[in-house]
């Protein structure tokens, strides 16, 4: 596992999401990750809805059917922040989620090791 610092914890609202352009932190081959805070936890999810290809970081972060989720603002699909699976339609395909570590104020994410969907 290769963890990379994506942002400061203070950069992410609680609850909320922050889009991090991966190229800006030296990671090639992927566009962006949404770093998400919800109820004291930090998550990382690919910042692209699998249904409509819009940034998930622009959506609401909330609990949906007992799971921490982020909602796609365009059509309302929610994605479980722990698994990447959609919790409602119209999305049917999961999006990658990544391991996260918080060290002090640094949010570190391993974008090379997605957590199984």
Account of the 3D structure:
By secondary structure, the protein is mainly β. Helix content is 0%, strand content 39%. It contains no helices and ten strands. A hairpin with a 2-residue loop joins β5 and β6. The protein starts with a strand and ends in an 8-residue tail after the last strand. 36% of the residues are buried.
SSE layout:
Elements lengths: L3 E5 L7 E6 L10 E7 L2 E6 L14 E4 L2 E5 L6 E3 L16 E2 L1 E4 L2 E4 L8
Antiparallel strand pairs: 1-10, 2-3, 3-4, 4-8, 5-6, 6-7, 9-10
Organism: Trujillonella endophytica
GO molecular function: 2 iron, 2 sulfur cluster binding; dioxygenase activity; metal ion binding; monooxygenase activity; oxidoreductase activity, acting on paired donors, with incorporation or reduction of molecular oxygen
Protein name: 3-phenylpropionate/trans-cinnamate dioxygenase ferredoxin subunit
The description of the largest β-sheet is:
4 strands, antiparallel
Sequence of strands across the biggest β-sheet: 2-3-4-8
| Cα shape | globular
CATH fold-level label: Rieske Iron-sulfur Protein
CATH H-tier superfamily? Rieske [2Fe-2S] iron-sulphur domain
The rounded distance between the terminal residues' Cα atoms is 18 Å
Give me the secondary-structure category: mainly beta
What is the overall number of helices? Answer: 0
The overall number of domains is 1
Arithmetic mean pLDDT: 93
């Amino acid at each position: 596992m290769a963890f990379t610092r994506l942002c400061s914890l203070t950069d992410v609202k609680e609850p909320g999401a922050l889009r991090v352009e991966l190229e800006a932190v030296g990671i090639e081959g992927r566009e962006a990750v949404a770093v998400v805070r919800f109820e004291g936890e930090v998550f990382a999810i690919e910042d692209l809805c699998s249904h409509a290809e819009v940034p998930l970081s622009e959506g609401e972060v909330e609990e949906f059917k007992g799971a921490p989720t982020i909602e796609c603002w365009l059509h309302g699909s929610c994605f479980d922040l722990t698994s990447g699976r959609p919790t409602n339609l119209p999305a049917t395909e999961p999006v990658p989620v990544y391991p996260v570590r918080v060290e002090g104020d640094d949010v570190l994410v391993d974008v090379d090791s997605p957590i199984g969907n």
